């Protein structure tokens, strides 16, 4: 019996990988809710920072780009660098892609994955045993983890004092991924911690919904916005993220990235295409949202039910900032330990680097038959894996390697 390949996750990377495997004739079962992170964990009214060319999910055949979806749906074509993509349009595009290329998607959750059996030498003899929340048990010959941002929201330890049980939407402190409807903060004082696109757009949307908003950013000049496309230098190579040699190399030639020293790899993942607001957000932000730049946040606490941040200023003074609520727009951190659907033995077998799986050629992990794509692959293949356009590099290579290694 030929067991199928299991793809865990139905966001852009999971759908793209599944489409490539299906095109190669590989039996595949795909699990998850389509585009769930985009639909449930992004704020209403959000606009994508990425341009249309950087927002198409890679497919094994023509006719499935964002522009193709716009044509099929009869909506305005989104093709130029100046076209801005509403999140609702992107979600609808992902669902259209799924219906066209991954129609057999199973909207169930994978509860656990364990090795079924191991031959001498470490090769899996029986593949992997997966348990679904429907109660079904089945065997997969290989597993692709493409769970996106799920379970990876990062809360800095200095904010934990105001969130003893972790960030919650209605508690003193939440994570930006928990705030889909910002209108509930109308008439309230809100602090947003962070300086990236998520922080700045969350702050702008909350201000437009009637909140009094302050952004607290760590570092001088931390709040900034990108250069409009018409002002970018023309003599540098074009990439999905702008015109620069470094961006071009990281976008189209991430092959050697995994050979860099670990310290360099993790630094580049954090800093390249790091905290920066989109060029089109500046006018909606400046003059509407207050910014407080601090050297560091010392701690967070709760007074009379409301959060209080103790901060150290750049002059060395210690101040306290209070509000009705704090949103930590502090990004995501890959941590294998947080992927509790992976069995304990699998997690202990995996070679990791600062919590992220170490991946070889074809996105394979140190456990034969287990692959990772999307954000968990960024520490091995670079910052492009944080973005939808990374599917163009990852999906065909992962599918090709998996077919060669597992038939």
Explain what this protein looks like in three dimensions.
It is a single chain. The chain has 407 residues and is an alpha/beta fold. It is built from 11 helices and 19 strands. Strand 14 (306-312) and strand 15 form a beta hairpin. Residues 119-124 have low confidence and may be disordered.
What are the secondary-structure elements, in order, as H or E?
A: EHEHHHEEEEEEHEEEHHHEEEEEHEEEHH
Tally of helical segments: 11
* Rounded Rg: 22 Å
| Structural class by helix and strand composition | alpha/beta
**What is the overall silhouette?**
globular
The portion of residues assigned to helices is 10-25%
Q: Give the oligomer, counting copies of the same chain as homo and different chains as hetero.
A: single chain
Strand order of the largest sheet: 7-16-8-9-12
Number-wise, the strands total 19
Offer a concise description of the structure:
This protein is 25% helix and 20% strand. It is an alpha/beta fold and 407 residues long. The strands form 6 sheets. The protein has a 5-stranded parallel beta sheet with strand order 7-16-8-9-12, covered by helices on one side. The protein has a 4-stranded parallel beta sheet with strand order 2-1-6-19, covered by helices on one side.
List the main descriptive attributes of the protein structure presented here:
globular, five-stranded parallel β-sheet, about 25% helix, 19 strands, four-stranded parallel β-sheet, 11 helices
Topology:
Blueprint: E1 5-8, H1 12-23, E2 28-31, H2 36-40, H3 66-73, H4 87-101, E3 110-115, E4 128-132, E5 137-140, E6 142-145, E7 173-175, E8 189-193, H5 197-208, E9 212-218, E10 238-239, E11 242-243, H6 245-252, H7 262-271, H8 282-285, E12 290-294, E13 296-303, E14 306-312, E15 318-322, E16 325-328, H9 344-349, E17 352-353, E18 356-357, E19 370-372, H10 378-381, H11 391-406
Parallel strand pairs: 1-2, 1-6, 6-19, 7-16, 8-9, 8-16, 9-12
Antiparallel strand pairs: 3-4, 4-5, 10-11, 13-14, 14-15, 17-18
Helix pairs in contact: 1-4, 1-11
